[in-house]
Amino acid sequence: MDFEKEARKAKHVNYIALGILAAVVLAVAAAAVVYRYKHTFSSEKWLNNPDGRTAIVDDLLEKYELVGMTEADVTALLGEHNNDYGYFNADNRYVYCMGLERGLISIDCEWLILDFADGRVSDVHITTD
């Protein structure tokens, strides 16, 4: 009898452990899906959430080869450039504010800078102010 009781108890513990493991796996999978969604570029996200662009800029740069794009292509993808602050002004340059820089302590903004030569993007870089 004690053996049967111990076997049932062990089986019960195994079911609990399996349930906990399944819950953890599902939570990690859900977190990965949410993270990927929040960090996936779309023109709509870029245009509608200017302060959240730092979260999606890496995906943008992975998906699109900006170098070589025309000004019209860039505007169609990213909207009108906005350099109201006057930072990084130069001829033939588009500047996009992306919000606070990534990291735990954010006091500066990150900026996507596209330089043009002959009407096409010639250089792409990200900087902070």
Write structural notes for this entry.
This protein has 2 domains: 1-38; 43-128. The protein is 45% helix and 20% strand. It is built from 4 helices and 3 strands, in the order ααααβββ. It has helices spanning 2-38, 43-48, 57-63, 71-78; strands at residues 93-100, 109-117, 120-128. A 3-stranded antiparallel β-sheet has the order 1-2-3, with no helix packed on it. The longest helix is centred in the N-terminal third of the chain and has 37 residues, at 2-38. The radius of gyration is 24 Å and the shape is elongated.
> Alpha-carbon distance between the termini?
75 Å
Q: Percent of residues in helical segments? A: 40-55%
Query: What is the total tally of β strands?
Result: 3
Round the mean pLDDT to the nearest integer and report it. Answer: 88
User: What is the rounded Rg?
Assistant: 24 Å
The fraction of residues assigned to DSSP E strands is: 15-25%
pLDDT under 50 segments (min length 5)?
A: none
- Assign the structural class, choosing from mainly alpha, mainly beta, alpha/beta, alpha+beta, or little secondary structure: alpha+beta
Number of helices: 4
Please state the overall shape, judged from the principal axes of the Cα atoms: elongated
Order of helices and strands: HHHHEEE
- Main β-sheet description: 3 strands, antiparallel
How do the strands of the widest beta sheet line up side by side? 1-2-3
Q: In total, how many domains does the architecture comprise?
A: 2
